[in-house]
Structures are given as C-alpha cells and as structure tokens.
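Appendix C: a fully annotated inverse folding record. The material below is reproduced so that readers can follow the format used throughout the book. The structure is listed first as tokens, followed by the designed sequence.
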C-alpha cells in the first residue's frame, strides 16, 4: 500500500479538520465490476468511475484509491477533490452544499446554482476582483450552535472552460489541463494568508435565469427547500437510505438545512445569462454583504 502525492495537497485542504489519509491500493476485484457505481453506508462509500478508478471512503478520515491503469492522474485528483471529498466531509457529520464559496470582507458567501448554469464562472469572476476563493462546487459546513455556520475552506482551485478563463483574463500560468478527455481546466487562485482559518457563512446566493437583474431574500420555508435542493448531503443521505433503509441521516440533513435557513439569509439572484452583466452582479453581491445582508 503506497501513499500517493494527493496526501501532500490534502495537508492544506480542510487542514483544520482531523487528518485525512489517502492511499493507493488494489482491493477486491468485485469493486471493478461495478462500473459507474455509487454506494454509501453510514461508515463507508464506494464510487467506481469507468476509466478513472475505484474510491473507497471510510469513516470520514480515509480514502483508498484503486486507479484504472490508464487513468490520467490529474483526472483522479479532480475526482478526489470533488465528489470524493464531499462524501468524506458528509461522513464527518457536516452539511455539504452544492455551491462555491468566497471570502468578502472577512465573511464567507456561497454561490449556488444547478450544474452548467454559471455558478463556477460567477464565483471565479468574484475571485478576479480580489475576493478569496474558499471552495469550489461544494461547501462543507459546521452546523453546530455557538459560533454559527462555519465554512471549512478548501484548495483555491476551480474548474473552468478555457474560453471562460480567457474571458476572465486569467493568466495562462494559473491554468492547468485536467485530462485530454475533459474540456474544463484547473484554474488556481492566490492562496489565503491563513489557510487554517474558518469563515462564518454570511449568506447564500442562488443563481436563477430571468429577464431582469434582481436580488430577493427568500422566506425561511422557501430557503429550507432551496438548501435541500442544493445539498450534496441530501443526495448522499438518500443513497444511504436506499442502501440500508436507515432514515436518520436524511432526517439530520433536513434538520441541518432548517437550522441553516434560520441562521443566514438565502437570496435568489435572478439575471439574464449575459457575461457582460458579471460586473453588475458582483457589485450587487458586494454591496449586499457590506450592508449586512
């Protein structure tokens, strides 16, 4: 069993969480027959991606990878930082939202949207305006009373289409290919001064397409439903229920979403899909945060 280079990266990813160990190994050939499979129980999860490999995530602290012999290591890395790490954080009892997050004036804000509707583009644009990039495509949240919801920052790395990165004037040296099979590329942002710092979640902004630009705070009940919709934890808990018949984690996720909706404002940011509107949208978010939301 060999530790692989991802361990080095994960020392700076969710670094204020308990140790995450990542190993490369070969295990039961049965797992390799489960093409494009996802199965989760309270203590472990298995994901098998064709032509990438099999990932075993155990008890929120260990990932064992059996990569496909022909897999591009950068693609394996992308999967590890994405869905695999989301499952691991879910196993630790965190609420994991399907959203990106940035730091604005010392506060974390979340940008949520359905896949392919501009979430990553808008988050990356905010980062080009000098705001710290905290997490890409997922937000692991501590949802315990006391300090309020806290964002565990991750690696400042986004995945963008090359034409989007070019339109955002991101320097070429910050763009790295993921795989010959993927059009998107890694885009790195400047590291934070204190990578171990948690950030209080100030607000969540859900992108929605419409004819006019508007920012509307949702009523709490609607906010709960939006949080459930944009939650990786809900997907994982549903899979766990289907696998084991245990509803407890699904109930906990719903309780976490209700708790969060009572702690932070959730906004619907409606706008036409127009790249030229990014400065206006960013200014709207910045003003909202600085005015206290």
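Designed amino acids, in order:
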């Amino acid at each position: 069993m060999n530790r692989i280079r991802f361990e080095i990266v994960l020392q700076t990813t969710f670094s204020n969480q308990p140790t995450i160990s990542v190993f490369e190994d070969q295990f039961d050939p049965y797992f390799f027959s489960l093409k494009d499979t996802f199965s989760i129980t309270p203590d472990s999860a298995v994901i098998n991606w064709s032509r990438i490999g099999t990932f075993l995530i155990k008890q929120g602290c260990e990932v064992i990878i059996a990569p496909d012999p022909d897999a591009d290591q950068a693609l394996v890395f992308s999967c590890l930082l994405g869905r695999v790490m989301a499952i691991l954080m879910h196993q630790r009892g965190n609420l994991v939202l399907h959203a990106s997050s940035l730091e604005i004036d010392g506060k974390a804000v979340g940008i949520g949207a359905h896949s392919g509707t501009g979430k990553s583009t808008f988050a990356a644009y905010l980062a080009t305006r000098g705001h710290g990039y905290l997490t890409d495509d997922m937000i692991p949240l501590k949802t315990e009373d006391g300090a309020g919801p806290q964002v565990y920052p991750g690696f400042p790395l986004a995945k963008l289409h090359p034409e989007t990165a070019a339109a955002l004037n991101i320097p070429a040296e910050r763009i790295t290919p993921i795989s010959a099979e993927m059009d998107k590329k890694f885009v790195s942002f400047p590291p934070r001064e204190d990578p171990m710092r948690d950030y209080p979640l100030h607000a969540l902004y859900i992108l929605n397409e419409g004819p006019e630009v508007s920012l509307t705070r949702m009523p709490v009940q609607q906010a709960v439903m939006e949080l459930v919709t944009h939650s990786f934890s809900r997907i994982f808990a549903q899979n766990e229920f289907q696998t084991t018949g245990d509803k407890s984690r699904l109930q906990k996720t719903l309780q976490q979403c209700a708790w969060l909706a009572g702690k932070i404002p959730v906004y619907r940011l409606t706008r036409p899909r127009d790249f030229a509107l990014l400065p206006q949208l960013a200014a709207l978010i910045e003003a909202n945060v600085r005015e206290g939301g």
